[in-house]
Design brief:
Helix content is 28%, strand content 26%. It is an alpha/beta fold. The chain has two domains: 5-227, 3-Layer(aba) Sandwich (Rossmann fold), CATH 3.40.50.300; 244-430, Class I glutamine amidotransferase (GATase) domain (Rossmann fold). The longest helix has 15 residues, at 201-215. The chain is elongated and about 70 Å long. This is Hydrogenobyrinate a,c-diamide synthase. Its EC number is 6.3.5.9.
Length: 431
């Protein structure tokens, strides 16, 4: 079992500064010689990439809706191994959850027995932060708000007024971050590029790290961290797709959950990676091919011209390898992809379906999935759906029957043809 301690960064609502604080603290603590293991609450793929860049250590997802408490505890302990601290960024507001009321940042903090550092946006308020903080602190027994960080503080006078108000709550004020235009996170371009390739990100990280060191009591923050609850469980919850899994990985296929990859490695599977955008084919001796989610719609011409990639997928199908695609990966397995301009781009053609970017609003939410397919996973799965595209009905059997978080039946998802299959669902864990 790891001996690391940790805490959770949360807020009353989205937009309060959780990500700013998380990235700044990861960078500041790293520069101070601390080894900090980062994690993100929920199914987000993008923030963990930035967490890992700031920490110099890969981040993981901890999803209290999709994962069982034992799996969350095991992943948290494994992530914290060799680290001084486990720092977890929350999602939305502290008590915000899925439609069924489960899966909040508070649920995660309680499961792991970790204290919460609450980031409060102080813009356009002063003494009113006190009842807000007190309400959040008293709302749920078992969730301990151990410290407060105030964000977007306008002046020294504003800070004094806020500090006096916070003192009445009995909760430690760890620091007040001033309102500054250079503390705005640069546009993250939907995660299509690594942070090091983004103009301005390194400069932002330098400023954020120095700001945290200047305005937050890092020693007091460290003292609030508590040991992780729960025990380590080493078994893989979702078995490997095969003994040798070839995995697409590049800017078009970037949505990979690290806990799945590590679980597959731990179960003895060999993982190899290839880039469809570089026209690379999956390994010829792989018995499974995984095309994860991403943004193939932004790379239609390159994928349409990737002949070796396409031929490699057909060869994998012909040797009876299992071929599985999620969201963007599912789109790449289909006949064609129609982008936002109406241009059609030929895809792999393994599933007789056309996908198109035509939805004015995104499809977003947790899904309970049931399948009867060659996937070597339990019949019941938990996953997430997030896309702007739609798929034409193919006439093939769907891969998944689906319910949303409230148990409301959704349209059947995806398509299944022999050992080739895919859908818009991102599978997270066994149900």
């Amino acid at each position: 079992m790891s001996s690391a301690r940790g805490f959770v960064i949360a807020a009353p609502r989205s937009g309060s500064g959780k990500t700013l604080l998380t990235l700044g603290l990861l960078a500041a603590l790293r520069r101070a010689g601390r080894t900090v293991a980062p994690a993100k609450t929920g199914p987000d793929y993008i923030d963990p990439v930035f967490h890992g860049y700031a920490a110099g250590r890969d981040a993981i997802n901890l999803d209290p809706w999709a994962m069982k408490p034992a799996q969350i505890a095991a992943l948290a302990h494994q992530q914290a191994t060799g680290a001084d601290l486990l720092l977890i960024e929350g999602v939305m507001g502290l008590y915000d959850a899925a439609a069924d009321g489960a899966g909040s940042t508070a649920d995660l903090a309680e499961t792991l027995g970790l204290p919460v550092i609450l980031v409060v946006d102080a813009d356009r308020q002063s003494q009113s932060v006190a009842p807000l903080i007190a309400g959040f602190a008293q709302w749920r027994k078992g969730v301990r708000i151990a410290g407060i960080v105030l964000n977007r503080v306008a002046s020294a006078r504003h800070e004094r007024m806020l500090a006096t108000a916070v003192s009445g709550t009995g909760i430690r004020l760890l620091g007040a971050i001033p309102r500054r235009t250079d503390l705005v996170i640069p546009e993250r371009h939907l995660g299509l590029v690594l942070p090091g390739e983004m103009a301005g990100f390194d400069a932002f990280l330098d400023i954020a790290a120095q700001t945290m060191a200047d305005f937050i009591d890092l020693d007091a923050l460290d003292a609030l961290a508590l040991p992780l609850a729960g025990t380590v469980e080493t078994r893989s919850v979702l078995p490997p797709l095969g003994q040798h899994i070839a995995i697409a990985k590049d800017a078009a296929f970037a949505f990979l959950y690290s806990h799945l990859l590590e679980g597959w490695r731990g179960a003895g599977a060999q993982l190899s990676f290839f880039s469809p955008l570089a026209d690379e084919a999956p390994s010829s001796d792989a018995d499974a091919v995984f095309l994860p989610g991403g943004y193939p719609e932004l790379h239609g011409p390159a994928l349409a011209n990737a002949a070796r990639f396409r031929q490699g997928l057909h060869a994998a199908r012909d040797r009876q390898a299992l071929i599985y695609g999620e969201c963007g990966g599912f789109m790449a397995l289909c006949e064609a992809l129609v982008d936002k301009t109406g241009a059609s781009h030929a895809m792999a053609g393994l599933l007789p379906t056309v996908t198109r970017i035509d939805r004015p609003k995104r499809v977003l939410g947790y899904r309970r999935l049931v399948h009867d397919s060659p996937l070597p996973w339990s019949p019941g799965l938990n996953g997430h759906e997030f896309h702007y595209s739609s798929a034409r009905q193919s006439g093939l059997p769907p891969l998944f029957e689906a319910l949303d978080a409230e148990g409301i039946r959704q349209m059947p998802m995806g398509a299944l043809l022999g050992r080739v299959m895919g859908s818009y669902a991102h599978v997270i864990a066994a149900a």
